[in-house]
Amino acid sequence: MLQRYLLVLGLGIGLFLQVMAVIVPNTAARRDLGAATSSVNFARQIGSSVGVALVGALFIHRLDGQLAAHLPASGAGHLSEAQVSSITPQGLAQLPAPSGTSSPQRSPVRSRPSTPT
C-alpha cells in the first residue's frame, strides 16, 4: 500500500517540478531571470537531498528489523565485524545454510585474478 502512495507522490512532485521550471522563468523580470531559475534549481536540489536522506534512513531502519526477524540466530555468530561492514562473496560463502533447507546449492567463490599495475 505504501508503494502506491510513494508512486503517486513521486509522479505529482515530478510533474510539479517541471511546471515550476517553466513558470518561474516566464514570470520573472528579465533582470531577475538567472536568480529565479537558480532558486528553483537550488530548492529542487535541497529537496532531493533531504528526500534521499529520509528515504535512506527509513530503508535502513526497516532493513535492520527485517534482517533481525528473518536471519537465523546462528548466522550472527559467524560474521566478524569486518564482514558485517563489507559483505563480500567470501563472507557470504562462510554463512551457515538457511534454516529449513536440506542441502544448499552454493557455487564456489572464485577470486578475481589481480592485474599488475
Notes on the protein architecture:
It is a single chain. By secondary structure, this protein is an all-alpha fold. It has a domain at 1-59. It is built from 5 helices and no strands. The chain has helices at 2-27, 33-70, 73-77, 81-85, 89-93. α1 (2-27) packs antiparallel against α2 (33-70). The N and C termini lie far apart (51 Å). The mean pLDDT is 76.
The average pLDDT value, as a whole number, equals 76
Contiguous runs where pLDDT drops below 50 for at least 5 residues: none
Report the β-strand fraction as a percent range: under 5%
Helix content: 55-70%
Helix-strand makeup class: mainly alpha
Annotation field: number of helices: 5
Q: The biggest beta sheet, please? A: none
How far do the termini sit from each other?
51 Å
CA gyration radius, whole angstroms: 24 Å
